[in-house]
Write a structure and sequence with these properties.
Length: 421
């Protein structure tokens, strides 16, 4: 059975985020429809818009000339706020007073200038933010401050493959939305529809998740969930498919990054089904009105899907009912690797869920996002990643004492590629 999954267009200015106050219904201003496909892609788009226009358009040569300025931004965004010089304070907005001796003021400055506060306070972290940080914190910092480089052909091919996989079981339908409440209602509606599909058909794909993990709100989209039908105890199996340009399996750093992604999904899934969704905390954090009347198209689609809802609060109640009917995910997760040319299976990596390792990884990433420390670099044995990073020429890790770029040795690894779908 093929179900309908809802995507949306939004009537708001291009610079208005989904969490911004909605315009009055009497507003005669022109409305520009914006189609938003996935949370991960929105995270990258919002990061690019958040950077200054000058920095976003800065050519690579100018980036090299401004490497010291970039270093200053790094220092001001992290733990060392109190030791930065006053001359560097102009490199970052909202940096607060430099050199303050007050621990409370320093703590407040770190929070206000943290990447989490500046770039993700409107909708929370994505799982891609976590995996991107684990891959290289310095690269993530550059992406946030200067915008994400253009997708490679390999990344575009990987995204296209996931669209094909989704369309095998789900038909995407565009729905017009008018408010932040509508946007979040759509996310929860798609989860409810996907969860029902999993229970009845044993398979769903591109399932959106929202959860409160390690003290922060996190969003993500699971590639695929399977529900065995022949076993007495039915536990959902979480699956992620990665595409490969070369007919080789990835090295350990890429496998580790993929495992982290799937473990994040399992943690979010298990939290959703085992605990009552913290609706009030969610509404307060994102400044949402639970009694806001949803757009006509959303109300129409909720009725067609079997859970008629007038308000976001109605949708949240159905979300709670749906989660209570789901079991926790199977404690073994599956990574699949396909060749991009013909979608042939290169191999599978089935591995056990490790909650303590996952907790350590998330907490380490959050230290970076919350401004508790400076961005770290990959270990020396993984510096081959720099050869595939668009910011390598401006990164202090690749500079000699005289400021000239240094050669990065390619460590022994099969087919090094940036992690992508």
């Amino acid at each position: 059975m093929t179900l309908h999954r809802l995507s949306h267009t939004m009537s708001q200015s291009p610079t208005q985020s989904p969490s911004s106050p909605t315009t009055n219904s009497d507003d005669k201003a022109a409305k520009i429809p914006i189609e938003i496909i996935t949370n991960e892609e929105m995270a990258l788009i919002e990061a690019a818009f958040a950077a200054t226009a000058t920095a976003a358009a800065m050519p690579s040569a100018q980036l090299r000339r401004n490497s010291m300025s970039i270093c200053s931004i790094t220092l001001l965004s992290k733990r060392g706020l109190s030791v930065c010089t006053a001359t560097a304070s102009s490199d970052i907005e909202d940096s607060g007073r430099v050199g303050s001796n007050s621990p409370q003021k320093n703590k407040k400055n770190r929070v206000m200038t943290s990447f989490l506060h500046r770039f993700r306070r409107g909708r929370g972290l994505s799982v891609t933010d976590i995996t991107g940080t684990e891959w290289c914190e310095k690269q993530m910092e550059f992406i946030l401050l200067f915008g994400k480089p253009q997708k490679t052909k390999a990344m575009q091919a990987g995204s296209a493959r996931h669209v094909v996989l989704e369309e095998e079981v789900i038909k995407r339908v565009k729905v017009h939305v008018e408010s932040a409440e509508d946007v979040w209602a759509l996310k929860f509606m798609n989860f409810i529809v996907g969860a029902n599909q999993l229970l009845f058909d044993g398979l769903t794909r591109e399932l959106p998740l929202v959860g409160f993990i390690e003290g922060v709100w996190m969003v993500g989209i699971i590639d695929e969930i399977r529900m065995p039908v022949s076993e007495s105890e039915r536990f959902p199996i979480l699956v992620d498919t990665k595409t490969r340009v070369q007919a080789t399996l990835p090295g350990e750093p890429q496998r580790r990054n993929g495992r982290l992604q799937l473990m994040c999904y399992k943690h979010m899934w298990d939290t959703l089904v085992a605990e009552k969704f913290p609706s009030q905390k969610f509404l307060d954090f994102f400044s949402l009105n639970p009694n806001h009347i949803l757009s006509p198209e959303i109300r129409e689609n909720t009725a067609k899907s079997g859970f008629p809802s007038e308000t976001l609060n109605d949708v949240l109640r159905y979300l709670g009912n749906s989660c209570s009917a789901l079991p926790q995910a199977y404690d073994r997760l599956l990574l699949r690797y396909e060749l991009q040319d013909d979608q042939s299976l290169l191999g599978e990596d089935e591995f056990a869920y490790e909650p303590s390792w996952l907790k350590d990884q998330i907490e380490s990433c959050l230290e970076f996002w919350q401004g508790k420390r400076e961005a770290s670099y990959p270990p020396m044995e993984e510096r081959w990643k720099c050869r595939f990073c668009k910011f390598a020429s401006a990164c202090p890790a690749n500079s000699n004492p005289d400021g000239s770029p240094s050669e990065t040795k390619n460590e022994a690894i099969l087919s090094p590629e940036l992690p992508h779908k």
